Amino acid sequence: MLKNSPPPDPERLTPRGRAFAYPDRGASGEPLPAAVLDERFPLEPDALKSRARAITGLDDFGPAPFDTPLARLCASLRDEVDLNAGGRESAYGRIMNILITRLRLQDLWRRHPEILKLPVRAPIFIVGLPRSGTTFLQWLLARDPSLRHAPFWELNFPLPDGDPAEAQPEPDPRIAKARGIIERLHAGAPGMASMHQLDAEEPEEELSLLALGFSSMAFEWSFMVPGYVDWYRNTDHTAGYAYFRRVLQTLQWLRGGEQWVLKAPMHMENLDALFATFPDATIVQTHRDPVTATVSLTSLTCYGVRNYFDHPDPLRMGSHIASIVERLLGAICAYRDRHGSGAFIDIQFSELMNDPVSAVRAIYAKCGKTLSPETERAMRTWIANSPRDKHGGHEYAAEDFGIDPEERKRALAFYLEPFGIDSARSGA
After folding, report:
1. pTM given for the model
2. What is d(CA 141, CA 145) in angstroms, rounded to the nearest whole number?
3. Please, are residues 246 and 64 in contact by the beta-carbon 8 Å criterion?
4. Could you give phi then psi for residue 148, rounded to 5 degrees?
5. Where does residue 19 rank: exposed (0-12), middle (13-18), buried (19+ CB within 10 A)?
6. Measured between alpha carbons, how far is 395 from 104 in angstroms, rounded to an integer?
7. Measuring CA to CA, which residue among 156, 243, 161 is closest to residue 206?
8. Which ranges of 161-306 does DSSP label H, i.e. alpha helix?
9. pLDDT tens profile 224-243
């Protein structure tokens, strides 16, 4: 996965680990030469910016953070990571989307400065670990029409084609485009539906919106990029979150809404920047055994990156994800130790699953909101139609990724003990 690192030794892997590391790709043909990849999918900042300008006819990429993280990201992808052609194309496409969207946003803000005067009122941020019920909770809260969420289609295509200020067709063509993305994802990774549910018209993590200001872990999840991560971890992301707020204002201007319900695990290590930008925010932290979450998330990530690397290393990925989980939990615990928990509400995974509506009531009480009878009925109907494992079970085991559950329990005791979390089943 990293350059100058040998492929994982099959003898050290479990059968499931070997399937991750040596996927059956069928007749894939000859790999593209490096020169062809460099021409088609350049990872040089100047070449990328030149192409984005040519596509849009625009020139201003907007405020920092921009040039430094772009240069670090490109260097890391180009020089540190052993991407195959699919990985190279994906990384190139993601960066181009960032650049093109930034150009279009800056042009829109120049022409419509009133956008940046819109209030972003008392947002609710769900910040639990992946696999801890955050998606379930966000989808449940999305039944409330008084809360603004960003559906998958809007996150992938925040601006419509053409001039965003002009009237748009109904239904929005971006919805069909997003459905196509999900269909292609499931065709190339058919097991993904049992690991992480996606729906074009339901909310999803705002990783792509945060990435516009380089305040997202999206590239770290997918590509590891150690040099870029070094920049990301040692940067104050207040400017990036200010950019994120501008993006939210733009989405409000396009489609309405004031009070957002948002969700992304990376907020856990950026709470200073988050509260500097959204001082009236409420943080909902979901809690579940982090050792089980680490193993499950590693399985999901390993499965997801098979198209980016010829030989994903499940043992390296296990260590990588374990360090991320420990880092995120350490950051949020340190923040709460420094600042207290006045803006936080804690929801145990078991409580959320056993009585979801009571969990919603607790969140609303914290936010000063009232759960209307109509919204409660909509939520209960959605719960009845959304059983767990609706798309099949997700099988994983710690040994597939070289994760030692007992070592992880000891390492994460700083989180397990204060929040009373039972990790008895963490080897599952």
Report:
1. 0.95
2. 9
3. no
4. -100, 125
5. middle
6. 42
7. 156
8. 173-188, 192-195, 207-211, 218-223, 226-233, 238-255, 271-277, 290-304
9. 999 999 999 999 999 999 99
